[in-house]
Amino acid sequence: MNNDIEEILFDRDSIHQAAQRLGKQITEDYAGKRPLVLSVLKGAYLWTGDVIREIELYVNLEFIKISSYHGGVSSSNEIELVTDIRTDVAGRDVIILEDIVDTGQSLRFLKDLLADRGANSIRVATLLDKKGGRKIEIDADYVGFDVRNEFVVGYGLDYKDLYRNLPYVGILKKSIYTKD
């Protein structure tokens, strides 16, 4: 797997430091509240674990699964709700934990869904923010790292459901995904 990576962008230690920084900020911002943390599967599961361990508040945790890439290297522009949550979000403060904000379409879909269901507030904590990939204007509230417009894998992010288990985020060599 490591031979498929062109460049390592963020190692385990830097990711851990980013999780500590965001967890501390979330703790301050939500003092006295009990937010609902909504982890977006599959990509954000490692990031979610790191961040919630740094939040010094009572939190509830839910998982939601959406799909827009459908196995490719770019968004299909069609968002599919694969696995919904069971928790009623009406009146709740929700923090979406994302692996990457790229085109912004998935995040817009989620924010609209939660707003339609009556969430009190919706904020986003993302490991990676790829502003160069945006198709719609949307911002994350908490950002681990800004990342350039490259196809990245590792630390939960995948290509064809592979590479999620890499302990870092790296750029996947183009030869890997152009031969398919």
From TrEMBL:
<dbReference type="InterPro" id="IPR000836">
    <property type="entry name" value="PRTase_dom"/>
</dbReference>
<dbReference type="InterPro" id="IPR029057">
    <property type="entry name" value="PRTase-like"/>
</dbReference>
<feature type="domain" description="Phosphoribosyltransferase">
    <location>
        <begin position="13"/>
        <end position="160"/>
    </location>
</feature>
<dbReference type="GO" id="GO:0016757">
    <property type="term" value="F:glycosyltransferase activity"/>
</dbReference>
<keyword id="KW-0963">Cytoplasm</keyword>
<comment type="similarity">
    <text>Belongs to the purine/pyrimidine phosphoribosyltransferase family.</text>
</comment>
<protein>
    <recommendedName>
        <fullName>Hypoxanthine phosphoribosyltransferase</fullName>
        <ecNumber>2.4.2.8</ecNumber>
    </recommendedName>
</protein>
<keyword id="KW-0479">Metal-binding</keyword>
<keyword id="KW-0808">Transferase</keyword>
<keyword id="KW-0328">Glycosyltransferase</keyword>
<dbReference type="Pfam" id="PF00156">
    <property type="entry name" value="Pribosyltran"/>
</dbReference>
<keyword id="KW-0660">Purine salvage</keyword>
<comment type="function">
    <text>Purine salvage pathway enzyme that catalyzes the transfer of the ribosyl-5-phosphate group from 5-phospho-alpha-D-ribose 1-diphosphate (PRPP) to the N9 position of the 6-oxopurines hypoxanthine and guanine to form the corresponding ribonucleotides IMP (inosine 5'-monophosphate) and GMP (guanosine 5'-monophosphate), with the release of PPi.</text>
</comment>
<dbReference type="InterPro" id="IPR005904">
    <property type="entry name" value="Hxn_phspho_trans"/>
</dbReference>
<comment type="pathway">
    <text>Purine metabolism; IMP biosynthesis via salvage pathway; IMP from hypoxanthine: step 1/1.</text>
</comment>
<keyword id="KW-0460">Magnesium</keyword>
<keyword id="KW-0547">Nucleotide-binding</keyword>
<dbReference type="InterPro" id="IPR050408">
    <property type="entry name" value="HGPRT"/>
</dbReference>
<comment type="pathway">
    <text>Purine metabolism; GMP biosynthesis via salvage pathway; GMP from guanine: step 1/1.</text>
</comment>
